[in-house]
Amino acid sequence: MKLSLPSFLVLGVATAFQAPVAVHRPTSALRVAQEISPEEVAAAQAQLNGNASDSEEESSSTVGLRKEAPAHSKPKSFATKCASLYSPNVGAERGLAPPVYFGSTFLLDDAAHGARLHEKREAPYTDDDGFVYSRWGSPTNEAAALQIAALEGVDDPEKGLGRCLLFNSGMSAITSALQAVLRSGDHVVAPYTVYGGTYEFLTEFADQWGIEVTFVDGAGPQGPENYRKALKENTRVVYTETPANPTMRLTDLEGVGRVVDEFYGKADDKPGTSPHDRVRPYVMVDGTFATPYHQRVLDVPGIDVSIHSATKYLGGHSDILAGSVTSRSEPFLHGCSKVQKIITVPLNPMDSFLLARGLKTLDVRMQRHGENAIKVARMLDEHPMVAQTFYPGLDSHPDRQLSDAIFRSGRDSDDDEYVQTYGGMISFITVGEGDEALRRARNVCENLRVINLAVSLGGVESLCEHPASMTHTMISREQRMAGGLHDGLIRVSIGLEKAGDLVEDLKNALDNCDEDGCVV
């Protein structure tokens, strides 16, 4: 007898038995499947396959069945990676935007499926086998993580595959990466000029746990040698931030990776081992200011971990808190994923959705940020009330010999559409010393009319802040000055407004303000 099932039953049965993740399957299809014998299932599958081969158009419209993209269609350019969909497995309906999965828990196929997921609970999750609980990961989180992994370049088998983990803030990402590796008695080398929250963690919390930290001047051509001098037998993390927040100093990452390799030998990650078992320290880079648009740090020999505050440029709209950690090291990813599941938690579904949306415009936003910033920086560099301007695109920048290579390293060599820019962050120092410089810098910030007085950075709107009064107050003045963070330093995040409006706003504030106030 020839079996002919209605098309809706054929689709329901095929979806129920073929879909790779339980959450993707319609519940009605599962109920239908329970009432049909294995022989009928096989016949239904054969009928479906036959129908699919009759018409390519009919096959392409089949709902709930994934069609794998051919290998040659994988985008290579940064702009196309930004705009392309990197989340093919987050819904049977295959919407171009990832669905927001608010559910705290996920339907399992059977007890064996649940056991399998729990056995891999210490590993970074993928959606190949499904999800179990939102504290361990969700499809929406995975969609954004896949996008960042592609932009970081760890989706290329020729260079080595890796993964991205998403956290509920940039500081969660930083602290999770450090906690994945460090134990009591370990040693960390870090630069003087780091984000204030990172400095606070390294000086207060790390000290409580018996972790020793050595701060060095890691900027410029001499930076790698300064790192070398600080290395010890018990060094487990070499941490750097480039461009540095807020001084915009640059680190020679190739040099840092090289001196660490020379001191300890190259990394030898062994699957199934703890990240703490490795002799060579992990080299971690916070590249928040540059983003993968400008520098792909994991392509630099000797660099193990890339960290971003995705709150900033990756999200791009000042409406989320998020952080990312990306690596090719399996032991590190397992350790960091365990910290994430137990201590910090992954990025929530709504912010994951907003991050994925923001990433689609990262290429065009970063280009505009850079085009605006160089115009503002040139005005500041010539203004009589500005003692020094820090912008990597200026010839006056102390690390100018590094900036072209660093800010190009995120691009493929054959990217002929790329126009060299240097990011959207500028710092400058007002004239004067001590309290005079402090008062003048505050007055400049308070008398801007287009640029907003607010902390954070990387959004579409321009922001300014005074680090000595705001983001870096936890650092002593002596430590700040040693790292180049002057009392009169102002940090500006250049947005997407008309460049001329930003230039005029800053020029007016500088022209009319002195240490005693603003002359109107």
Automatic annotation (TrEMBL):
Task: Supply the Pfam families for this chain.
Answer: Cys_Met_Meta_PP (PF01053)
> What InterPro entries is this protein classified in?
Cys/Met-Metab_PyrdxlP-dep_enz, Cys_met_metab_PP, PyrdxlP-dep_Trfase, PyrdxlP-dep_Trfase_major, PyrdxlP-dep_Trfase_small
Region of interest (Disordered), residue spans: 45-72
An example GO CC term for this entry is:
cytoplasm
Q: Which domain of life is it from?
A: Eukaryota
Q: What is one GO biological process annotated to this record?
A: cysteine biosynthetic process via cystathionine
Keyword RNA-binding assigned: no
Going by the UniProt record, its keywords in alphabetical order are:
Amino-acid biosynthesis, Cysteine biosynthesis, Pyridoxal phosphate, Signal
Q: In which pathway does it act?
A: Amino-acid biosynthesis; L-cysteine biosynthesis; L-cysteine from L-homocysteine and L-serine: step 2/2
EC identifiers of the protein: 4.4.1.1
- Molecular function terms, GO-annotated: cystathionine gamma-lyase activity; pyridoxal phosphate binding
Q: Indicate whether Nucleotide-binding appears among the record's keywords.
A: no
Kindly list the cofactors needed: pyridoxal 5'-phosphate
Signal peptide, first to last residue: 1-16
Name the protein family: Belongs to the trans-sulfuration enzymes family.
Q: What is this protein called?
A: cystathionine gamma-lyase
Originating organism: Cylindrotheca closterium
